[in-house]
Each structure stands twice: as C-alpha cells, then as structure tokens.
Amino acid sequence: MTAPAPAVAPPPDGGPTDQRPALTEKLSFFAGNFGNILLSTTISSFLLLYLTDVLGLAAAAVGTLLLVVRIVDSLVDPFVGYALDHLPETRRGRFRTYLLVGGVLGGISFAALFLAPALLPAPLAVAWGVYLLWGVAFPMMDIPLNSLLPVMTSDRTERGKLAAVKGFTYLVGGVIVVAGTLPVVGSFGSERTGWLIWATLLAVASVVLTATSALGVRERVRPIRADRYGVRDLLRIFTGGRPVPVLLTAKVSTAAASAAMLATMPFYFLYNVGEKGLMTVAALVMMVPMAAGSVVAPVLARRFGSKPAYLGGLAVAALGNGALLFVPYDAVPTILVCMAVAGIGMGTGTTLNYTLLAELTDYVEWRHGHRAEGALASLASFAAKTGGGLGGAATAYCLGLFGYVAHADQSERVLDGIRYAQGGIPMALIVLGGLVFLAYPVDRRVSARIADELAGRRSAVPAVRPAGGE
Where are the alpha helices (DSSP H) in 187-277? Predict the structure, then answer.
C-alpha cells in the first residue's frame, strides 16, 4: 500500500470541519439531481417512442442507434472523469465550477436531441449526430454531480442521508417525468410541436437547477495526498481487485433493467392494457413505493450493511417485474401492485448505488493512496449510459423481432413481445446484476475499517490552506 504524501489543503470555502451538510445544502443537492433526472429520464423513457411514433423512424434502426451510440459515447466517460480529477481547482472547489459549465452543455445538447431531428432533413442521420453530442456533453454534467456526494461529507450517516436525497430525487423525479410528459405533450395541438416545446422547457429548467446545486453545496473531504494520480495508477484502480469491475458490471445490468422497464411502459399501456392514460396512474402509483425504498435504504444499510440491503432490493425489484409476465392485461389493479413492488426494490437499489459509490471512493484511497472521485463517478455515468443503451436497445429489438408496427393494431405476437420487454427483460437483467454483485468484497466490516483508517491518516498529517478562497 502506498504511503500517503502530505495532505492537501482544506476546502477553499473556508475549510468546514462540521461534516453535517446544512438543510440548504441538501436542498441544493436535490436541485442538481432533479435537473439531471429531468433530462436523463426523458431520454430513457421517451426517446424511443419519439423517434419511432412521432418522427416515423423504424424501431430496429432506432434500436441500433440506441445501442451503438450509447456504447461508443460511454467510452468518453473515463476520459472526462480523469480530466475532472486533474483540472485546476477553483475557488469553489474541485467539482462545482465544472458542474456549472457541464449543466449548460447538457441542457443545450438535450434540446438539440429533440429539436434537430424534427427540424432538419435526414432525421435518422441527424439523430445519430446529436445523440452522440449528448453522450459527450452529458458526462460533463453528470460526473461532477456524482463526484459531490463523497466530498460533501465523510460521515457515513450523513452520506446515507445524501444518498437517500439523491435516490429519492432520481426516482420521484423520474416518475414525475414519466407521469407528466405525455399529458403535457398531448395538450398541444400538434404532438410534434408539443415535444419541441416540452424539450426546450426541460432543458432550461435543468440548467437553472444544476446552477443552483453548483452554487449551493460545499466540498469538505480533501485528498490525503497532494499529488494527482497518473494513468498507471488509474489502471491499477480499475484492474487491481474485484470491487471496481464487480460494481461496474452490476450497475450496468441494473441500469439496463431500469431503462428497459421505462422504455417499454408507453407501449405496454398503449397497446397491451389499451389505455395510454393509465401510464400516468402507474407512474404515480410507483412513486410512493420508490420514495419509501429510497428512505428505508440507508436504514437497511446501517442495520445489515450496504451489500445485503442492495441484494435485497434487487430481489424485490426482480419479483415485481417478473410477476408482470403472468398478469392479464385487464387486471389493472394487479399490474399496479406489481409495479409498486418493483418500485420498492428499485428505490432501495438506486439509493444504495450512491452509497456504494461513496464507499468505493474511500476504498480506492485506502487501497491505492489516491482519491479519484471523478474517475469513479465516471463509473456511474458509464453504467447508466451503457445500461441505458442496452436496455433501450433490448426493448427496440424485442419490438422489432415480434413485428411491431407504429400506429397500428398489434397482433397477439406483438403484445407478447411487449409483455416480455416490460417484465421479462428487466427481471433477467436484475437477476444477472445481483449474481455478479455477490462477488463484491466490501462489506460493512471492511467499510468501517476503511473509514477509521482514513480518519487516522488525515489526523496524522498537517493541512495547509491553499491560496484563494471565496
């Protein structure tokens, strides 16, 4: 294990020693995550529907777009994470200024993703270009945001609360987007016009919310070492042991499950259930269990450890999704119960993802001597993008395989394909992620030991205040 170099300075905003973020900080943290989820959920839930049913592109062609571009642009994430860890520190800290810039870039590229294919010729080619642009811009917004939780506090209880805020925001914000998008879009005279206006409003709201977060939170946790890690150090971090690759694989699987579930919902309620308006009801029904899961997750983690609690959440989510395979389409109350059960599990698992990422940041510093929040936050972005691409593509390919045709009466074969995409694909992906995560070596005992040893290292070295402050 590498011996620590002299510690770097305390936070530029005055070096707070209190590890408890204030309520205003938590609200600012909520705002940034809400701005993030407005964009990412709209894309994961409605981009497939928008490109096929509104712009008239073939489902198989869109499936290839979702898969290839998302995998290619996910390769950008490690570079963004590495750059973020090595960019100059500003008076606002290591991440907040870059979150501010990334929020603007993310909002612009999101609006372009919906506006450009509708307004320019060759919509499929344009969609490829602007989707790739989104994939490059979004990490510049997402990775600084995901880097904040580990540096806002080192206290495990406070981190659990912040993870609950993040998980609650992502889940409830996602449900709000899913429930509200189609009614808002449908309120305009033209569906295409409705989408263009809605996408623009979401982009502006996201920029404002992200700026609120960047200006309202504080960075408290400082690296023990003053020097930055190199490329060889990064390779050792990602390949030197099981934690990083195991968590990466599990997160890709569960993100793909969530993306498949969300991408299929509009088709499931429109064609299988026969009532598109019930999608809004289902989203609202899922919101309470999701919120409950996100609130309960830190309690379960403190009681049993993050790993068992995460696996339990995945098991519940798999059960709720899998049950949809056997529910008749006219049994609407039962369908809603299944989705509520899945929501509890997804709420628990989503929240604990962020706790696990913060714990992994500490593990890397303890094991390798360097803090790498940006690089590890790129793990979350990579998982979300790759998993989103896989989940969305799996839905599109499933629809294409079973003969889906937009704006047509669907055969029983197509309805079966939609049912498999809604229940079977998410269940299989969740189970796969859970099986992989069984190999994750950082349990509650190891995490507590790491926290104690890192605290001892920080107390043993002098801190020197940097030039510049707010």
Answer: 191-216, 231-239, 243-267
Counts for the chain of helices (H) and strands (E), in that order: 16, 0
Q: Which one, of 259, 417, 395, lies nearest residue 325 by Cα?
A: 417
Token output for 382: 């990579």
In this prediction, residue 210 carries a pLDDT of 94
Which distant-in-sequence residues (6+ apart) come within 8 Å of 439 by Cβ? Answer: 242, 246
Least confident of 46-55, 286-295, 399-408, 433-442: 286-295
Contact 459, 298 (CB under 8 A): no
Structure tokens at 151: 């540096």
DSSP 8-state class, residue 359: H
Q: At 250, is the pLDDT very low, low, confident or very high (cuts 50, 70, 90)?
A: confident
Between residues 128 and 285, the one the model is more confident about: 128
Contacts of 427-431 with CB under 8 Å at 24 or more apart are: 427/257, 427/318, 427/321, 427/322, 427/325, 429/253, 429/254, 429/256, 429/257, 429/260, 429/391, 430/253, 430/254, 430/257, 430/314, 430/317, 430/318, 430/321, 430/345, 431/314, 431/318
Pick from 375, 355, 353: nearest CA to 364: 375
Residues paired with 93 in a beta bridge: 90
